[in-house]
Structures are given as structure tokens and as C-alpha cells.
Amino acid sequence: MKKYYLPLILCLTSLSGCAFFAKEEVKADESWTVERVYSEAKAALNLADYQKAIQYYEQLEARFPFGEYAQQALLESAYAHYKSDDPETAIATLDRFMRVYPLNPNIDYAIYLRGLVNFHRDIGLIEKYVPRDESQRDPGAAEDALRDFSALVKRYPKSKYAEDAAQRIVYLRNRLAQHEINVAHYYMRRGSYIAAANRGKYVLENYPRTPAMPEALVVMAKAYKIMEMYDLSEDALRVLELNYPGHPGVAEVRKTKVE
Predict the structure, then answer these.
(1) Nearest Cα residue to 26 out of 46, 55, 58
(2) Ramachandran assignment for 223, one of left (phi > 0), alpha (psi -120 to 50 degrees), beta (any other)
(3) Cα–Cα distance measured from residue 100 to residue 17, given in angstroms and rounded to the nearest whole number
(4) Could you tell me which residues come within 8 angstroms of residue 181 by beta carbon, excluding any fewer than 6 positions away?
(5) Which long-range contacts link 84-92 to residues 24+ away (Cβ below 8 Å)?
(6) Cα 5 to Cα 8, 10, 17, 109, 199, distances in angstroms
(7) What is the reported pTM?
């Protein structure tokens, strides 16, 4: 299967390159009103012509820096950058929007959009077509997204975006917890048992009620047992048996030999 990846990569790269060079520069006429410039930008956005929309939004902000249209243009340009696979600019634009217009009625959407940008930020072009286990990715963007969505739910619980944000929070907590378990298993294979146990403990303290909980207890019980910290091992095993009776990790810990 891997032999097909290189042609796919070359194909996708060439396609993205063609799109880049095909970028058409647009300019609003000097006689256009702010309403006209905004209308052209919005039309381009609705047609998914994000580069054209961005150019119009930038010109609107430069020519008409004050007022409702300027605020909306800044927010919508952030969305256009997000859809153009330019997460850094999208986040910078959103941060500027929230800093300059903290009382704007669409602040909840700005926070939500920043969460979406971070949610998808670590997915590269190739990964859109060649999926991999998301818990194996760098957790930085997922942690940022979790903070954004959590802030939205806390500050604006009645926002129309709160329900979707809450669902994404559950997903992100599960993903981040599993990432910690993956790292813990790596440390176990390396013989770094203290580090492995600490990763398991981190899951218990920061991601309770996630599917990774029993595996965190198994890692802790095994690591402590190997280090001959029998009291801590038995404590972890007791919690595992109490909360997850019949879990195969119980027998696994019992069979673990002290080195």
C-alpha cells in the first residue's frame, strides 16, 4: 500500500501548486461603498473562493476601518483563512478580533471558530487522504482546541455553538487521554517505569471518566510492581478491580514479574 503514497503526494502537491499560481488578484473600485465591498467579499466567501474573499475583506478593513462592516469583515476573513488551510493567520486574525472588539456580539463564534481551527490544525494535506490514529499526533493543537471549546461552554453556555463544543470536548479529552497512554506504553517498553506511572497518574487526575482510565490504572499497577512499590501497585489494582471488574488488565498485572 505504501508504494502508492509517493504518487499521491506528488499529485496533491502539484494540485495545490497549481491552485497557488492560479491566484487572481482582485481590487475593489474606488467608487464602491463599504456595503458594495462587503457584498463582493461575502459573495466570494459563499462561493468558496476564499482567496478572493480575503482580498476584499482586507481592502474593506483598510478603506473603512471603523464600524460594523469592518468588524464583520475581520471575523469572516478569519474563517476564509481557516478554509484556505492557513491556520496560523486564522488564529492571529481571531485573536486580533477578540482583542479589538471584546464586546462584539459574535465573540462566542470567534472562540468557537478558534477552537475549530485548532481542532483541525495538526491535520496536514497528506493526512486528509492517508488517515492515521489521531492519538498518535502531537497533542499541542488538541490541547489548544480543548481550552477554546471549554472557554466557550463556560463563558457562553447558552450559545448556539455550545452543544457542538461540548461534544468536541468529550472527543478531545478521550483523544488526549489515549495519547498519554500511548506515551506511557512507550516508557514501559523503554524501562522508564517512573515516567510511565506518572503518565498513568496524569490521566487519572486530568482525564477522569474517559475510556483510557482502566489502561492508566494497569500501567500504574505494572510500573509500581516492577519498581517493587507494592503498596502503590496494589492501590492501583484495587481501584481497577473495583471500577472495572473483570478487566483483563487485572490478570496482566498479576502475571507481571519483578525484574
Answers:
(1) 55
(2) alpha
(3) 35
(4) 135, 199, 200, 203, 212, 215, 216, 219
(5) 84/50, 84/51, 84/54, 85/125, 87/117, 87/118, 87/120, 87/121, 90/114, 90/117, 91/117, 91/118
(6) 5, 9, 18, 37, 34
(7) 0.82
Are 4 and 34 spatial neighbours (Cβ–Cβ below 8 Å)?
no
pLDDT along the chain (259 residues), means of 10: 46 46 73 94 96 96 93 97 96 97 96 97 54 60 96 97 98 96 96 97 96 97 96 96 92 82
Segment 212-236, tens digit of pLDDT: 999 999 999 999 999 999 999 999 9
Q: Tell me how far apart the alpha carbons of residues 184 and 199 are, in angstroms, rounded to a whole number.
A: 6
- All three cell numbers of 165: 463544543
Residue type, 196: A
Which of helix, strand or coil describes residue 108? helix
Query: Which of 94, 126, 123 lies closest to 107, judged by CA?
Result: 94
Query: How far is 14 from 10, CA to CA, in rounded Å?
Result: 6
